Each structure stands twice: as structure tokens, then as C-alpha cells.
Amino acid sequence: MDPRPSLLLLLLVSAATSAAAFNITKILNQFPDYSSFNNFLSQTGLADDINRRQTITVLAVPNGAASSLSGQPADVVKHVASLHVILDYYDVDKLQSPSKGTALLTTLFQTTGLASGQLGFLNVTENKNADAQVAFGSAVPGSPLSAYLVKSIAAQPYNISVLEVSGLIFPPGIVNVKATATATATASNPPPVAPAPSVAPASPAPSKAASPASPAPAHTKSAPAAAPAGVVDAPAPGVDAEGPVTEASPPPSPTIAVAPTPSADSPSDEGVGAEAPEPVAAEEASSGSRVGLGVAGMAGLVGVAVLAAL
């Protein structure tokens, strides 16, 4: 394989790279009349931006005209200096024959995103009625043509052109451009409105579970035991105190009372709620009364017989 074509291609690429490489700081260091403007480019970092470009035109301002930029805030210095960097190659011949007598030139400031309207553009006009044929000014409507083309300082054709202009291009509103850009961005993208806090539905009050009503103790009355005639019936134990109380009738005559034997059917002392015994039938009560009278009669006869025997 013949190495000559590859070597030739390498030489062409090296030549193109060398031709495109430039350093604006080194170029302006050769001309002390532009030292102030050269310092502005270095201090603001614009020199690095220029050196990275392939095609550029720099409008250098002499020290006397650049002095008005001294003492300004760093961002204002950078914005104004970037307006003097055109993103294309222009030499004197090309500027002296603009199409239709005027043209808009895009500057490095346009790439910052801070330029509103036509603030990032320059208006270049061929002025045939004056000694200086080419004038520069801001493209913002109403801006004056404040700088004029003086001469070419240095050129590397179609890569970089350094031209001298008579004064600074200082458009109105450039000082407040940062605050204006911030306000515009805020108006275009207002902060999101925080949603109103959602009101949680009120949790229902805990329902009071109806506790089952305790059944009232049954009031039961036990049937009274059979008693002999003439003896007052006492209320059976377990009778509800709140029940009606009946007055006992007075005994008809003094008699010997025979205590009845407690019946097996008498109520026990179990707790309230025990089932009460069935009431004694009326016939059983009458039978008990007759037995009591018979026993009392027999006791009386025995007593009479004992007295007769004495």
C-alpha cells in the first residue's frame, strides 16, 4: 500500500487545523492601543469563547474610547464587550458593500440567552454622506449609530478578522439586562401555585354501642304456707320489698297457736331470678285450715278430761 496518500491527507488536516487556530489575546497584545479592550476580553472569559470559534470578527475599541466601560459591574462589561464580537467573518471590503445598504449582524451576546428582542444584534449601515462610510449601532429600535469603522488591525482570512471601531456600542437597557431577563423568565414561567391542603373528611364519631339492658330481676312472690286459724300470716322470704303490703287482720280470739311445720315447698334462698314455685291451690289451703281446727278441738277435750279427773 502506497503511504503517500495517507501522508498527504495528514498534512492537509494539519494545515487546516493550524489555519483555524488563533488566539485573540496574542493578536491584540501586539497593539498597545487596544490593551484596555484586550483586558476586558480576558477578565470576562470572552477571549476563550472567541478562540473556540472557527469564524469570528472582533470590533476592537481603542483605549480612550474603552475607558467609559471601566468601573462598570463585571456582567455589564461582559455584555457590552460581547456585542463587539460578530459571529461571522467580515473584512473592510465586505462591510463596505452591505446588501441593500444595511444589515443585521449576530453577536456573541445573542448566544447568552439574555438578549431580548434585537438586543443581541448590530445594525451596520453604509453611510455614503459621511467621511466614514460604515457605521455600527445596536439593532434595538431607536438606537443611534455610535461607532464607525476605522481600519483593519489583523486578519486571518475567513477565520478571524480584527477591526478597529471609533467607540463603544452601548445600547440602552444593557445595564439592567440581567434583572429584565429574570423578570421575563419569571413572567413566562410563574412558580406553580401550591395546591390548597386537602381537608380530610371528619371521621365519624364512634357509635355508642347500645349495651344490652340488663333484665330487671323478676319480682316473684312465693306462696305463703298454710297457717291455722287465728294466726297472722307472715310474708314469705324473698318477697319484693316494693310489692304491696297488706295489713294483717287482728286475731278473733286468743287461741293456742300450733306452729306449722315448714313445708318442703318453701322457697329457697337462691339468687334473684330463680323460678318461683307454683301457688298453692285454694283447696289445699282449706284442707289445712280444717286440720288445724281439729287438732285444737282435741286439745281442748283433753284439757277438760284432765280437770274432771282432778
TrEMBL record:
Organism: Acorus calamus (Sweet flag)
One Gene Ontology CC term in the entry: side of membrane
Signal peptide bounds: 1-21
Localization per record: Cell membrane
Keyword Signal: yes
Keyword Mitochondrion: no
Domain named FAS1: residues: 21-154
Entry function: May be a cell surface adhesion protein.
Protein name: Fasciclin-like arabinogalactan protein 14
Membrane topology term: Lipid-anchor; GPI-anchor
